[in-house]
Specification:
Layout lengths: L1 H31 L12 E4 L9 E3 L1 E7 L5 H11 L4 E5 L7 E2 L2 E2 L4 E11 L8 E5 L5 E6 L2 E6 L16 E5 L5 E10 L11 E5 H35 L5 H16 L6 H5 L5 H26 L6 H20 L2 H4 L3 H24 L5 H22 L9 H90 L1 H15 L7 H29 L8 E4 H18 L3 E5 L12 E4 L1 H17 L6 E11 L2 E10 L34 H11 L3 E6 L5 E8 L7
Parallel strand pairs: 1-7, 15-17
Antiparallel strand pairs: 2-13, 3-4, 3-7, 5-6, 7-12, 8-11, 8-13, 9-10, 9-12, 14-16, 17-18, 18-20, 19-20
Helix pairs in contact: 1-10, 3-4, 3-11, 4-6, 4-11, 6-7, 6-9, 9-10, 10-11, 11-13, 12-13, 13-16, 14-15, 15-16
């Protein structure tokens, strides 16, 4: 059933599209049918004695008298005829004087001239009120009927500075006094590639031409309003749902077409804004022509993804941008010569897109067939307009109608997409609601079972969590140790490799013993570094266990001093222990819960660091103080040296792993690993304490280890 409906919908759309195409072809045939009977002027005289033009208007077609580079009034023409006789030249109207052969030379599009036509009326038309419908004439003109000036558009002059171009359609009325009507028209053009009377002038009864003109205006207003409303509607849709760019490009396309329809045909823009600059009017029209092809290509790519190739995207963007820049920066006399090239570009856009649409229609992509059919209609009307504006077609301004049909079809296509999306959302919402109801029912049944299983799983989960944490700490320690070894051993190993190669290659045999000494020292350093890296990685991952017990800090420091006194003094340094008056406060001696062995290691790292950067004859001093902060007592152990100190701006960095600072004036021994202070910080923090350093960068440094005292330290 669903397949039958889908096939039926496609058949209905196909019939609708075929009807539209047939209707447009029929309209084209009716519009393009020649006037019957068809009258043409010969040598400036049009014989209409056999036709009732007040009832059956005609288009003036044929030879007019042509006075090149002359601005003649009807009186001037009469004087010349009386003086020189009939030696006039003739030009076919409608057509531009561009390419007209005069005295063996072809005229260009710029210049000025006077045209004259004499019309002989029938007896029925002598007492009728007649009218002339004047199209846009490039680009300024004056019209006399029987010696009376009836129309003037722009300012006619003999050079560019004296001519004011303007575009406007006119409907002028007059009452013939006899059976003869003389039309004299001065035309000047210095701003466009084509000059002259390039479109048909309609001649007939005032009532009939007024009705025809009003119908044309109404039709163009309908087309323009339809395009603008459709464009604004789709731009608003894009504003509400920015994800779908098809509505953006389609809205821009129809908006631009609506604006262009104001600039062609009956020139509605000049009726709404009579003072619109002529140059602005032309630039807007040409910019819309150039950009419309690119915009419709982007729209097509949104509707049918991957139908436009990347190279076509890039090429059309470059070509369209180049044309738009030329139109903006050059005068109309230059860019109007590109009309044929612009037309070819737009037509190629549409042909390329239709090739992709044919492929999509063959694959039976939804909407491709209707898109293709209306694109054919639009292409026919667009090609006709370009032919018309190049004087190769008698039918003008058909593209607005074709584009209106195109936009209506696209609006239906987009609306169907929105409708289908909304239907799918409703369907999905219903399915989700049904699924949710089923899940709620299942959840009520499973809730009791889950609660029963949760208690059993909780115990197993706790066991697994403990095992997982252990494995995680072990893995983290392994990864950190591997990272440390990879990072920190690369330089000494590379150095050792260089010395080994130097010995093998016998670069300097006399220095082999020195190289071997370097290798031995580096080996010792690497061995010590591996031990420290392993210990630090275990500290950072929490794999080191501590045996905490209450310890009197005074006793701990005195034992530490006695153990390392000879080591410090053998290094040529004085070693002092300053416990202060804490010995006299035996009931209140500070007691810290500590792992004495680990804390001794941390304290030795500080003393070793002080020994390394203190010259012989210097002093290393250990002191103890007690302070109270926020009702908590702290035992503060300080290690002070008389070395050169540490720059104040580096005090925060010295506890980082691998941080090394070479103090000036200190003899270099075995290079340190940069891990001692990092290990010290980890051990102290594990005891709940802090470690910090003070130095002015000149007179030594002091390291403070603060450890919290336990409450029952006096017992």
């Amino acid at each position: 059933m669903r397949g039958i409906l889908r096939f039926g919908s496609r058949t209905i759309l196909l019939h609708i599209a075929a009807a539209v195409v047939i209707g447009l072809v029929a309209s084209y045939a009716v519009i393009s049918a020649p006037d019957s009977p068809k009258f043409q002027s010969k040598e400036g005289i049009l014989d209409l004695t056999q036709v009732h033009v007040s009832k059956n208007p005609i288009k003036l077609n044929g030879e007019w008298a042509f006075y090149w580079q002359e601005r003649l009034s009807p009186e001037d023409i009469q004087i010349r005829s009386a003086r020189d006789g009939n030696n006039e030249r003739w030009i076919s109207i409608p057509s531009s004087w561009l390419g007209y052969r005069l005295d063996g030379q072809q005229l260009n599009g710029t210049g000025f001239a006077t045209f004259r036509l004499v019309i002989q009326l029938s007896e029925q038309d002598r007492n009728e009120r007649l009218a002339l419908r004047l199209p846009t004439i490039f680009h300024a003109y004056k019209l006399w009927v029987n010696g009376e000036l009836l129309a003037e558009v722009g300012v006619v002059g003999q050079d560019k500075s004296s001519v004011t171009p303007h575009l406007s359609t006119k409907l002028v009325f007059f009452q013939p006094e006899n059976d003869r009507v003389e039309l004299v028209m001065q035309v000047a053009n210095f701003h466009h590639k084509r000059g002259g009377i390039t479109k048909y002038i309609e001649f007939g009864g005032s009532d009939v031409l007024t009705v025809r003109t009003n119908l044309r205006i109404a039709a163009e207003m309908f087309t323009t309003a339809g395009l603008l409303v459709i464009g604004v509607y789709h731009l608003l849709l894009f504003g509400l749902r920015r994800k779908d760019r098809a509505t953006l490009y389609f809205g821009l396309f129809t908006m631009l077409l609506g604006i262009r329809s104001l600039l062609v045909g009956e020139l509605l823009i000049t009726q709404l804004w009579p003072a619109i600059p002529w140059e602005l009017q032309f630039k807007i029209e040409y910019l819309i022509l150039c950009s419309s092809g690119y915009i419709i290509a982007m729209y097509s790519d949104c509707i049918f993804p991957n139908s436009v190739s990347r190279w076509f995207h890039l090429g059309t963007r470059i070509v369209t941008g180049a044309f738009c820049i030329i139109i903006v920066v050059t005068p109309a006399l230059i860019y109007t010569k590109l009309l044929l090239m612009i037309g070819v570009m737009v037509v190629l856009h549409m042909v390329y897109l239709m090739v992709g649409l044919v492929q999509a229609a063959v694959r039976r992509v939804e909407g491709a067939l209707i898109f293709l059919l209306v694109s054919v209609v639009a292409l026919v009307t667009v090609i006709n307009d370009f032919l018309y504006y190049n004087e190769w077609s008698p039918i003008g301004n058909t593209s607005p109608l074709g584009m209106l049909v195109f936009t209506i079809a696209q609006m239906i296509l987009l609306s169907s997409r929105f409708t289908r999306a909304a239907s799918n959302e409703e369907k999905i919402a219903r399915e989700l609601q049904d699924a949710n109801n089923k899940l709620t029912e299942m959840n009520m049944n499973l809730e009791r079972t889950v609660q029963e299983r949760t208690h059993a799983l909780s115990a197993a989960h706790d066991d697994l969590r403990i095992s997982y944490d252990r494995l995680l700490h072990s893995e983290q320690g392994r990864k950190k140790l591997l990272a440390y070894i990879t990072h920190d051993l690369r330089l000494p190993l590379s150095s050792m490799l260089g010395y080994v190669e130097a010995v093998q290659d016998k670069v300097k045999p006399e220095r082999n013993e020195q190289y071997l000494k370097y290798i031995r020292d580096n080996t010792i350093r690497i061995n010590r570094m591996i031990e420290e890296l392993s210990f630090l990685s275990h500290l950072e991952t929490g794999q080191v266990s501590y045996r905490m017990e209450p310890v009197h800090v005074n006793h701990f420091l005195r034992g530490f001093f006695e153990q390392y006194e000879l080591v410090v003094r053998d290094a040529g340094l004085d070693f002092m222990l300053d416990i202060g008056n804490t010995e006299d406060q035996r009931p209140n001696l500070p007691v810290v819960e500590m792992d004495a062995q680990r804390l001794e290691q941390a304290l030795f790292n500080l003393v070793s660091n002080a020994m390394k950067f203190t010259s012989r004859g210097g002093l290393v001093r250990i002191a103890l103080a007690v302070d109270e902060v926020n009702h908590t007592r702290y035992a503060i152990i300080s290690v002070q040296d008389s070395g050169t100190g540490i720059p104040p701006d580096q005090l925060e960095q010295i506890f980082d792993r691998n941080y090394k600072y070479e103090r000036p004036g200190v003899e270099k021994g075995v290079e340190g690993s940069g891990l001692g202070l990092a290990i010290c910080r980890e051990i102290v923090q594990a005891h709940g304490g802090t470690v910090r350093a003070e130095s002015d960068g000149k007179t030594g440094s002091i390291f403070y280890v603060s450890l919290p005292c336990i409450i029952n330290e006096g017992r």
